[in-house]
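User: Quick sanity check before I run a bigger batch. Here is a single chain. Can you write out its predicted 3D structure?
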Amino acid sequence: MTLVIDIGNTSAKYALYRGERLAHFERITGSWATTLSHIVANFGTPERVLISNVAGPQPELEAVLDSLRMEAQWLTWQTPEAQRFFNGIPEGLGADRLAADVAARVMAPDSDVLVVDAGTCLTFDLIRADGQYLGGSISPGAWLRLKAMHDHTAALPLITPQGDAPVIGTDIFTAMRGGCVNGMRWEIEGYVRHLLQNGYPHLRVFYTGGDDLQLAADVDACVIRNPYLIFLGLLAIYD
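Assistant: Done. Predicted structure follows.
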């Protein structure tokens, strides 16, 4: 059994795999000691632990893993096993983006791929069919957009992305949420359409992350949605 951990800036998740089969998935709400003790008690001791972390040092997790004699592999942009999937990995590429990019390459090895991760930040990574990493972009995710409006104004409230998000808001809440959520949706659609019309007509788009937005039909037709893309990438890298 393999324990795969994804530590993001907003939340952390883990999944347990038996071979390639997903056996369990859960968001982490308690301490690392509680979480790992729960895993061992209910599923047994994992044979290996694979980690993607973009949230800074994790001394508590490292201490708990050490106490349980679990040796972990922490993915970084320098991890040798990741180099075989594509060329041109930029210095400092986040482990989450790297893992998702690898999963996309494995699932569509002969296609140009765009990986969209709608998490704390909205990120895009473009990889050519020949395996060349071309680059991408980073912009604020839904929560960051709403929080920025609250933090940098005197009157706008702090709200969540969940709820009504009409194109035409009828109050301050729907105006903020609509501007945020629809702005992200149109950003994704615009990015994909631009690539489809400018050199990548057969582009495959892989979509992951916590903000699963509905996209226009022409864009959605080339989208593969997979909330476990980072986990699958970690498994592919170390297999």
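The chain has a mean pLDDT of 94.

User: Great, the batch can go ahead then.
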